[in-house]
Amino acid sequence: MRIIAGKYRGRKLKSPPSLQTRPTSDRLRETLFNILARRIQGARFLDLCAGSGAVGIEALSRGAAHVTFVDRSRKMYALIETNLKALNVSDDEIEVVSREALEFLRRRAEKKEAAFDVIFFDPPYSMDYEAVLDYVGEHATRMLAESGVMIVEHHRKKDLKEEFGALQRCRMLKQGDSCLSFYSQGTSLSV
Known about the structure:
Layout: H1 26-40, E1 44-48, H2 54-61, E2 66-71, H3 74-86, E3 94-98, H4 101-111, E4 116-121, H5 130-138, H6 140-143, E5 144-155, E6 163-164, E7 167-175, E8 178-185
Helix pairs in contact: 4-5
């Protein structure tokens, strides 16, 4: 895996050691960030179920102000830390958390911290996506900035609902076996 663009362009990242973790392909990451280009500069970005951290690191490389990486696996936590250290990323630009996605979101909502501009959610394809999406949709005003977007990577055969609470799907993109569903608060947002 490599960083596609920005200040870390061309730098290689360590990949997950097993096939149980499915990293977002370079091609899909490039497509994602081409779509998000105008939103990344200065953004607060959440990489939920981060794996190697490649998506969040790409966001940092392209100008995100702060990225929070969340993964339940201690091995993935260590891999994210290794990749960030190799790039000499400043501690004030990042937060790395080893926790279940839903537990992280609940704790964050209780603390009433600043909302994210972009949430990228890429769980294992076998995971139940709906609990996390329902929670973010129910607490959208605390989780997601007013003009923020939540992107869910899922298998193209997995049907996700059009709405989760205040979140409404505003775009869907299929590429190979993967699909990106974009959700925002209200339908007026264009992505």
